[in-house]
Design brief:
This protein has 213 residues and is mostly helical. The protein is 43% helix and 8% strand.
Length: 213
């Protein structure tokens, strides 16, 4: 990643955890776009601002920060203290960098290794939205016309953010998704896999017949 030579996903996870633990501001990695090269983080704007400041600071440090898969915790502590110290641009005189500021008052800017996603105003794909999932699921279920849904057309073409692997209709694939999501709907499918598989096969054959016609 651009912020420092040899900085990998494990280092980014450590950095994000450090920011949340020591600032109290919510932040998570939500998209794994390109391994060890591009990720998406979502959360409190104050935490995202700290992330940008820390990445910029790391870029200035000589030599790799990550040794043996981890970043020295003392280095993270020093970097966090440095980018939020009095005298830092944006710091309020005599107070904390974010004292008296609401998250929406933070204006994110592009850093050496960070690019704000303009127009995204919720922590999408994050655990913060998990309590709202049932309501969102109901809206989707009410809006989708299941007669027009053909999962077979997505095989090998659709790559879900949650897995980073091409969609497949196989028990192994569904098990891998269940391990990540613990979805009750997937649990039901897996517990009745043979019946569900027969239904999926009939739909595949129907899709193939339609394509021939």
């Amino acid at each position: 990643m651009r912020n420092n030579p040899g900085f990998s996903e494990s280092g980014l996870r450590q950095l994000v955890d450090h920011i949340q633990t020591h600032t109290g501001f919510f932040i998570e990695i939500v998209n794994l776009n390109i391994r060890n090269r591009q990720y998406v983080c979502a959360g409190d704007l104050r935490a995202l601002d700290v992330l940008q400041r820390m990445c910029d600071d790391m870029k200035k440090r000589a030599g790799p920060l990550q040794q043996g898969g981890t970043v020295d915790v003392s280095h993270l502590q020093q970097t966090l203290a440095r980018v939020t110290a009095p005298g830092t641009p944006g710091h309020l005189a005599g107070g904390d960098l974010y004292a008296g500021k609401l998250p929406q008052q933070i204006q994110l800017k592009r850093g050496v290794a960070t690019v704000p996603l303009v127009g995204v105003d919720v922590p999408f794909h994050s655990s913060l939205l998990r309590p709202r999932m049932n309501a969102f699921r109901r809206v989707l279920q009410e809006s989708l016309n299941l007669d027009r849904v053909s999962p077979q057309r997505l095989v090998g073409k659709y790559i879900p953010n949650i897995t980073g692997a091409p969609f497949a209709i196989s028990r192994e694939y569904f098990e891998s998704v269940y391990e990540i999501t613990k979805s009750e709907a997937l649990k039901d499918v897996l517990e009745n896999w043979e019946a569900w598989g027969e239904k999926a096969e009939r739909e595949r054959e129907a899709c193939a017949a339609t394509a021939v016609c």
